[in-house]
Amino acid sequence: MKELTILSGKGGTGKTTVSAAFASLASSKVMADCDVDASNLHLLLAPEPRQTADFTAMRSPRIDAELCAECGYCESWCRFDAIKLDFDDGYVIDALACEHCGLCALVCPESAILMEDHVCGAWMVSDTRKGTLVHARLGIGEDNSGKLVTLVRREARRAAQAEGVGLVLNDGPPGIGCPATAAITGTDLVLAVTEPTPSGIHDLERVAELCKHFKVPLAVCINKHDLDAEKSAAIRDWCQSSGADLLGEIPFDPAVTKALMAQRSVIDADCGPVVDAVTGLWEAVSARLGQLPGSP
Ligand SMILES: Nc1ncnc2c1ncn2[C@@H]1O[C@H](COP(=O)(O)OP(=O)(O)OP(=O)(O)O)[C@@H](O)[C@H]1O
Ligand code: SF4
Hints:
This protein is 37% helix and 27% strand. It has 296 residues and is of the alpha/beta class.
């Protein structure tokens, strides 16, 4: 089984546009929406959930006032200043400052601090007109998005195995933080969708560093390449000098936004020259995946 993760660093470069197009072009695959903070692939795929489950993760610690000896040990260890002495309530935890590291529970000599799980989101396995989609929803203000991305990927691989499907397509999150890291570790190939803008180029370099660190091969696609010829040339040069495979370039076309507003992929909406560009990109990505170790 092969796993492709589509990333960008900068948000809004066209990850979901490309992921939805690949979902239309790949004959056999399971899709995973790894943008759990602001998922939007489901808007294009009209999923019908066939399995729904709670996502539980570690919450803020709770101090049991009965057991607490008010020694102040936890306060002195907490590097986030999240534990304070309240003259009425004894030692209390500031939920906004707490980073859930759990150190206080480890150091408390009275075992007075409890770490409890709570429901902070949900994940779903759904039927769509393009095949199975695994997606998730993180509650407002909740942490643990990296953990939820890992869960979504695991369930997508599980579904692919059960269905005898050889490809998992991950629509990745923006940025290079914890959710992006969780979306690329152990994946076979990252396709970075970039655009010819200063932040597009800057964030492409950051994605490349991340891929290098986790030893994941990087391929690149320039979306809206005709909006700035000079910056697109700079991206081509960068790909050549850094050894990243430039696998395709997609022109700007207002029909793309119209297609997405009609909840259709650019392939299904037959978006003129964009269709040829994305089809060529998909063929190049498939060929690249086929050359990777472990391919039939
Ligand atoms: N080639 C293109 N021509 C014209 N508009 C485009 C093109 N590609 C993407 N867009 C538009 O850019 C916007 C962002 O695209 P998309 O949602 O695919 O990006 P994203 O990287 O998934 O964003 P996010 O980081 O928010 O998930 C959308 O309005 C889309 O219609
Ligand atoms: S370390 Fe334990 S006993 Fe000491 S103040 Fe903190 S919660 Fe109370």
